[in-house]
Amino acid sequence: MSVLDFSRESALIICDMQEGYRHTVHHFSSVLATTLRMIRLAGLVGIQVFLTKGRPTIFGATVHEVEREIARLPPALFGGSFTKTKYFGHSEELSRLLVDQKFRHATVCGVEAHIGVRVQASELMDKGLMIDILLDGISSRNKEEIPPSISAMRDVANLNRFFIYFGTSETISYGIIDHQLKIGSLRVPVDDFLALILTESQSISSGLKNLFGNGDETISGDSSEVVE
Q1: I need a labelling partner for 77 at 20 to 30 A (CA). Which of 68, 105, 107, 227 fits?
Q2: Contact 106, 131 (CB under 8 A)
Q3: Of residues 221 and 81, which shows the higher confidence score?
Q4: What pTM value is reported for the model?
């Protein structure tokens, strides 16, 4: 198998980052900050970005911060928005598109960890894609749902010998940049990437604390928006 080129064969999939979840998902603003950071990374590396939405009539539109950040991407890097026909499922249309266009890898973030993220990631693994899950980029309304969803995705991968990796946005971002450097396909100076990570260091730290301890332990969610 040929060496993976993230700029041609990888996708960033943002699951169900909709207004209806803003005030109910555990530390939604931390997940949102990670999502925005990864969209910026996608713009630097040349990774296509895809959105899914579950029942917009109930959960609303994609949050405006994500829409605004995507609008800043080169048009070719936005692969589209896909409305799911099944709430407890994945976007079949998106899965078919990624396979038809020969994508080999996807980084997944969004909500909810135990529903949209888990099912979408499992479906893409079943289609043969390698999957990275952003641990600081997923959450659920009840934070207790997050660890079992991670275990479930890991179990599916182990049982079927699929590839899945769980890491923070910083770890996965460095991995992508390092890989693109090694194969000579990094489109921007490394300093541009370092500037992105360094300016976001406080956000990365607080997000990890919020989602994984030493932060506010409330389950009811985080009502704040991300201020740019």
Answers
A1: 227
A2: yes
A3: 81
A4: 0.90
